[in-house]
């Protein structure tokens, strides 16, 4: 049913007069009468009782009045949502990222984003580097926050967000108290507590070990940064973790790992497929996330501060 006909009923019911309602709707009284008759025929009930020249809403009309108002509100909201979708102001954005990046950057950022963009539904998928790349290529997610090494194909577009260092975290008796870079050979002289190979920081550490001709002694391999960190607190070995790990207050020393004086680090980018371009709100999401990460790093919180 045309919602304009329903609006005509609501206007007559509010005005209590066909003459006043017709004037408000800028149509003739006869045209308004035909509209009301059309609604009554469609619904199969009389909506008004006619008493001489006066009218009043019938019991059936009163019973349907609230429902009709709900339909009009729902129709208005539907049109608004459709307009926002066309303009790129509303929709769903599926984002993939590793657990450390989600934990480090997303809690505060997402709360602010959702306050400002309530009609954009953000859905997060956790995964490692290769997992995220596969999810992007298969369309499970529209956007990944992943190592820039996964953006080196013509199938994707990317925006760099930040650089993350690979850190050695351990007791002072193992790696000293200085926060200065530590050579990878010194790190590998200890039992190592490592993330599994789903994590880009592990891939970078393994590559640096191969480049230096080192064979690390692995005391623990885990998918959980918190497990690795807890074992370092217990002095089981030296943890190797990315600088995106959330700060924890302990007595452990944190040192960037270096090889031949150069830091072992990697770049993180927002990556999306060229075959399914990001909607306008997706690009705004990337811009806002980049600004949020930049602010955090400017404040000195982009690197784990374990003290």
From TrEMBL:
The keyword Transcription regulation applies. One of its GO terms (cellular component) is protein-DNA complex. Pfam families: HTH_1, LysR_substrate. Residues 1-58 form the HTH lysR-type domain. InterPro entries: LysR_HTH_N (IPR000847), LysR_subst-bd (IPR005119), WH-like_DNA-bd_sf (IPR036388), WH_DNA-bd_sf (IPR036390). Keywords: DNA-binding, Transcription, Transcription regulation. Signal peptide: none annotated. One of its GO terms (molecular function) is DNA-binding transcription factor activity. SUPFAM superfamilies: Periplasmic binding protein-like II, Winged helix' DNA-binding domain. The keyword Transcription applies. Belongs to the LysR transcriptional regulatory family. PANTHER family: HCA OPERON TRANSCRIPTIONAL ACTIVATOR HCAR, TRANSCRIPTIONAL DUAL REGULATOR HCAR-RELATED. This is HTH lysR-type domain-containing protein. It comes from Pleomorphomonas carboxyditropha.
């Amino acid at each position: 049913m045309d919602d304009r006909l329903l609006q005509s009923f609501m206007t007559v019911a509010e005005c209590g007069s066909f003459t006043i309602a017709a004037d408000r709707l800028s149509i003739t009284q006869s045209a308004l009468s035909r509209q009301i008759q059309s609604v009554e025929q469609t619904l199969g009930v009389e909506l008004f009782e006619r008493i001489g020249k006066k009218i009043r809403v019938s019991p059936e009309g009163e019973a349907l009045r609230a429902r009709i108002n709900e339909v009009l509100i729902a129709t208005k909201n539907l049109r608004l949502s459709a307009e926002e979708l066309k303009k790129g102001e509303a929709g769903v954005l599926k984002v993939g990222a590793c657990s450390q990046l989600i934990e480090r950057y997303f809690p505060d950022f997402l709360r602010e984003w959702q306050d400002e963009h309530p009609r954009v539904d953000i859905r997060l998928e956790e995964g490692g580097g290769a997992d995220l790349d596969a999810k992007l290529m298969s369309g499970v997610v529209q956007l990944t926050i992943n190592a820039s090494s996964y953006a080196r194909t013509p199938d994707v577009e990317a925006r760099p967000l930040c650089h993350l260092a690979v850190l050695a975290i351990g007791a002072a008796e193992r790696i000293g108290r200085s926060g200065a870079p530590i050579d990878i050979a010194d790190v590998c002289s200890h039992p190592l507590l490592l993330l599994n190979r789903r994590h880009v920081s592990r891939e970078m550490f393994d590559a640096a070990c191969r480049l230096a001709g080192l064979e690390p002694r692995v005391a623990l391999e885990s998918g959980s940064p918190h497990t690795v960190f807890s074992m370092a607190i217990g002095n089981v070995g030296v943890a190797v973790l990315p600088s995106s790990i959330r700060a924890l207050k302990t007595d452990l020393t944190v040192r960037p790992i270096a090889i031949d004086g150069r830091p072992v680090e990697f770049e993180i980018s927002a990556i999306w497929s060229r075959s399914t371009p990001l909607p306008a709100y997706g690009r705004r999401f990337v811009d806002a996330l980049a600004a949020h990460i930049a602010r955090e790093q400017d404040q000195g919180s982009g690197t784990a501060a374990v003290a």
